[in-house]
Design a protein that fits this description.
Length: 118
Amino acid sequence: MDNQAPPAPRWAGVGLLVIVLGVFVGLGMAFGFLRAAIACVMFVVISLFGSRQVRSMMRFPPDPEIADVSDYGLRYVCTMCGLELKIEKAAKDKAPTHCMEPMMLIRTGGRPPLTPVD
Ligand SMILES: [Zn+2]
């Protein structure tokens, strides 16, 4: 699964460095270079953390691929109470649970699936 965001363009890092250096010199003249250095380091750390947070919020998982499996005769059976569910459409997902236990997948006739269905 490729969930990585594309890397930021190169000019963005250079532009950020130029801005930070300009602010460092300006603040250093006014408040002393130690305070300016602390401020610049905190600005860079906070802005990197914030942009990473925003990028991770903009990513969302892709929709699951749902396949019509109604011809395959797939059923989930609860091993505790015997409840049976016929599967019409399926995505790769966990088995449903009933009576606090995962249900068992069985096949009753029908054509076998072309691809394995979990
Ligand atoms: Zn049950």
